[in-house]
Amino acid sequence: MNITDRTIYWKGEISCSHRLTLPYESPCCNDHGHNYHVEVWLRGQMNANGMIIDYTEIKKVVMKYDHGNLNDYIRQPTAENISEKIARVLFDQSNVVDVRVRVAESDHTWAEFKITKE
């Protein structure tokens, strides 16, 4: 890690509905919802304001999905695909070099996606 790199962390919750299209019978094929816990780690260079990114920008990206139907935004809205979608949007920030997003459906199940420029 470059000594001028910094890491920030954000945690929040979104309540969303969705349904999955699966080639087998599953309750997930029916409309249902989750209270997802979302965690974001961002590593990068500080900008002129002394931050990697304003926490309000992270919140905007994540909260876009709150109280919505994830199928309107993501073709197959699994926890894996939700974490990837959020990470890719945040990764487009110019001074961000590393993003990791965790989306948890429960205390026992989650998916993570990590993307890096290095």
Quaternary form = single chain
CATH structural fold name: Tetrahydropterin Synthase, Chain A
Order of helices and strands: EEHHEE
User: Any idea what the CATH superfamily is called?
Assistant: 6-pyruvoyl tetrahydropterin synthase/QueD
CATH architecture descriptor: 2-Layer Sandwich
Helix content: 10-25%
Radius of gyration computed on alpha carbons: 15 Å
Total domain units: 1
If you average the pLDDT, what whole number results? 94
Number of strands: 4
Q: List the total number of helices.
A: 2
Main beta sheet: strand number and arrangement?
4 strands, antiparallel
Distance between the termini: 10 Å
Shape: elongated
Proportion in β-strands: 35-45%
CATH class: Alpha Beta
Notes on the structure:
The structure is a single chain. The N and C termini lie close together (10 Å). This protein has 2 helices and 4 strands. The chain has one domain (5-116): 6-pyruvoyl tetrahydropterin synthase/QueD (Tetrahydropterin Synthase, Chain A). It has a 4-stranded antiparallel sheet, covered by helices on one side. The protein has helices spanning 55-63, 79-91; strands spanning 5-18, 32-45, 96-104, 110-116.
Quick structural gist:
This protein is α+β, with helices and mostly antiparallel strands and 118 residues long. Helix content is 19%, strand content 37%.
